[in-house]
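Handout for the seminar on molecular recognition.
Each group receives one record of this type.
Step one: identify the two inputs.
Step two: read the structure output and locate the region that could contact magnesium ion.
Step three: write two sentences on what you found, then compare them with the reference statements printed after the record.
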Amino acid sequence: MITTGIKKFDELLGGGIPNGKAVLFQIEPGMEESDVAFPVMKENIGKVNTIYVSSISSPKNVYKKMEEFDMKPDEKNFAIIDGYSPLIGAPSGEKYVVEEPHDIGSYEDTIFRALEDLGENTLLVFDSLSNIMDLCNERIALEGIERINNEINKIGAYAISNFIAWPYKEATLYRIKRIFNAIIDARKEQALSLMEIKKVDWNAKTAKFYFKIFKPEGLRIYIPKIIVTGPFKSGKTTFIRSISKKFFPVERLGATTGVEYGVVDYNGYRADVFGIPGREGFAPLLDKFAGSSMGAIIVVDSGSEESIASAKNFIEKFKDIPNVVVANKQDALNAKSVEEIKRMLHPYENVIGASAIRGEGTKEAFEFLAEKIVEELNAH
Ligand SMILES: Nc1nc2c(ncn2[C@@H]2O[C@H](COP(=O)(O)OP(=O)(O)OP(=O)(O)O)[C@@H](O)[C@H]2O)c(=O)[nH]1
Ligand SMILES: [Mg+2]
């Protein structure tokens, strides 16, 4: 089994990509993220041997890109199959060179030779299957790809491939679907990049989530807008600070006076988080954000009944999007327990205890909401 490095993604895949499986990333033409396989390869480099089939860029550019992703390939466990240099008539310094890049047979020969050298614990990565199909005869190329996938299935290795889904003939697309164990779509939706597990022939779910690729971190489930609000002095700013890797407060004399912003990177999730004071003057802004946010975090002071009671208004305001109440200041002597707070907010259940000042429970509350946001996306 190999993993994607994204906890939720792996969970949806039933733990990861099992041995012997060939996965196709079917990417909408024109997408900025045209290489979705690369960050998955990053996650596994060093854990399995890697063969990278380079057909659209020079080995030099592949190594450069690896550096950008903080990857340190080792000759013993990483090899490039160079299908690019012969194409442009340049000499290749690689051990594995596709002599005749217009012939899928030449790709097969080289790949099988490399697989033999590196063994079954190997991940085969295609930088662009669509490019290889365009170079070789489409029909014959597909037959070759099928033979390669069969070999992967047989020896229990792994394959991941980028495939730009140009408007190919129906028959071609059908054939492609048939010869891969899993198809994962990457496409634009409402100006965001969406990944959708469309087909899997092992025990996994079809599901979707928004994503982004960051350098050097790699793949992340992306949540463009989470709002953090709540009553006065409940610890909203302290909460956002404690979950963010970058934080931009807007404060005057210790009080928040505008929209503060944090970038969260936690357990495979990347989110842009906006803090808005809950006071009356900010109500119009709050309503505007409520309409455009994917989720809401309501921070209350567990030591104040008034603060807890006011959560009800916020719960009502955010009833149409996933939300969570953070019962903050659990460290304080007069703090009401999470159970008590749940009773006070009954029948509302999504209450998570935290101490933002100690950084306890805050990331868990964030992840709880992030999971709900992904579930919500898959509920429709
Ligand atoms: N004991 C305790 N104090 C906390 C905790 N979190 C925040 N505080 C304190 O509560 C006060 C308010 O914290 P902030 O984070 O500024 O609260 P806020 O909700 O952003 O406040 P406003 O934006 O002005 O409404 C500060 O004195 C914090 O140190 C916590 O978990 N425990
Ligand atoms: Mg504040």
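Reference statements: The radius of gyration is 25 Å. The chain has two domains: 7-212, 221-378.
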